[in-house]
Amino acid sequence: MTRPLILVTGASGNTGSAVATELLAKGMAVRILVRRLDDRAQALRRLGAEVAIADLNDRRQVNGAMAGVQRAWFVPPYAATMAHSARIFAELAAAHRLEAVAVMSQWIASPDHPALLTRLHAEVDAVFAQRPEAFIAIAPGYFADNYLRLIDFAGLLGILPNLTGNSRNAPPSNEDIARVAAATLVDPAPHIGQRYRPTGPELLNVPEMAAILSTVLGHKVRSVPMPFWLFLKAARLQGVPAFDLDSLSYYVRDHREGAFALGAPNDHVLRVTGQPAEPFAVTAARYARLPKAQRSPARVLQAWLDFMRTPFSPGLDLARYERQAGFAQPALTRYAMDNGAWRSLVDAG
Length: 349
Description:
Blueprint: E1 5-9, H1 14-25, E2 29-34, H2 39-46, E3 50-53, H3 59-65, E4 71-74, H4 82-95, E5 100-104, H5 116-129, E6 135-138, H6 145-148, H7 151-157, E7 159-162, H8 174-186, E8 195-196, H9 206-217, E9 222-225, H10 228-237, H11 242-256, H12 268-273, H13 280-288, H14 297-309, H15 318-325, H16 340-348
Parallel strand pairs: 1-2, 1-4, 2-3, 4-5, 5-6, 6-8, 7-9
Helix pairs in contact: 1-8, 4-5, 7-14, 9-13
């Protein structure tokens, strides 16, 4: 029997590349859609993926990439144009009669949230919900990557920056999110119309994560409260896009108010994949193997020097960024825990 061809967008990103890798490991035929042939795309091509170079905002290019495809993983580009790209993709998916489209959504997606990204996720969900016979939503909350993106601080300095106090989350790994997405595309029929929220297996706060990292790294790691303005500087030095940081500034408050602890942990990873969600220690160990986390006397010294210089590096004025980007706020905005409509949907689901 001919294997269905699965189109994977965002394959140069963390979750998209993980979804493509998981599907290839399961013997599926995969075509990745990327904007350029970077190192991750080349690695996936070596594993057997077809490569389509396309811009998700270009209907003609997406149409070409979708030729012969039966199923797809859609990660909307995290930019102000994401709803536009979703409409293009959804319309072409219907025209090509795709039998299943798994879409990266968000746990707190709402049209009333102050974060533009969250409002756009709600808009993207509404676009794909117009064709419910093919729509599957994968809606994680606050990723493990949000805590571990500064793993070099933990590896070299023994510091885990803490933006969220003692509030808890059951953070999903990119790999578990990918395993859930891949499973729904290997056998979509049981999953059509479902909304899955992958979580980690236990609720943790940052001090508890620091204790786990101490064991993983073999040296003491302390949870250190970090003002968001300083985190912005450190993240900008690591190349984190302004759009992502603008969104994160709102999610820190959601985290502190308990939005990501609500309903977590759950059994969605186990239910969909047949395997339990990986513990935070397993995720952390993968990050600890990254070159930037490896210790040597020279690298520790350099890390301290860089850390001391961080407060004097260029920052990011988020209010000005939003004004210059034209991010208009709704007349009334609500964070997740203050949003009765969202809470009702959560309670019902």
